[in-house]
Amino acid sequence: MTELFEDTDTITLNLRLFGTNGRRLVNTEPRSMPLRAPYICRIPEITVERRFSLAEWRAAIIDHAVAMTNDVYQRFNWTNPNLSLARNAMKRTFTRRWKSGSVGGPHHAALRLAPGSNWKRSFEIARCLI
Predict the structure, then answer these.
(1) Which of 7, 48, 100, 121 is the Cys-Cys partner for 55 at CB 3.0 to 4.6 Å?
(2) How many other CB atoms are found less than 10 A from the CB of residue 74?
(3) Is this structure's pTM higher than 0.85?
(4) 29 confidence band (pLDDT: 50, 70, 90)
(5) CA atoms of 81 and 87, how far apart (whole Å)
(6) Which residues lie below 8 Å from residue 46, measured CB to CB, with a gap of 6+?
(7) Three-state SS for 112?
(8) N-term to C-term CA, the chain
(9) Nearest-CA neighbor of 35 among 27, 47, 24?
């Protein structure tokens, strides 16, 4: 079987979220506490981009996904988030991915946009990186 990419190939992930102006982050994790403040986005679109070699993505995929998630949080005016929660959610997501050998199945999001959003999960970033 031939690999599609070499470890030295540059892979770019460009995450774009539309319709974010006036949207609020909410915690949808079962049995968890609500966010302390209303973190509301004040811009109509969020773009986050990262460019690394395939080897760099593989070596630090959780770190890159958490950094991208933090960039999204910043656009929602959440300047000091507890990134350990995001990191734990990423670890759970990638642990399921590596154990199962496939990307299929539900991916849980600890945070998402309030109802009416045109995107499903804030942690889809992680799913795209594999």
Answers:
(1) 7
(2) 15
(3) no
(4) confident
(5) 11
(6) 15, 16, 17, 20, 72, 75
(7) strand
(8) 18
(9) 27
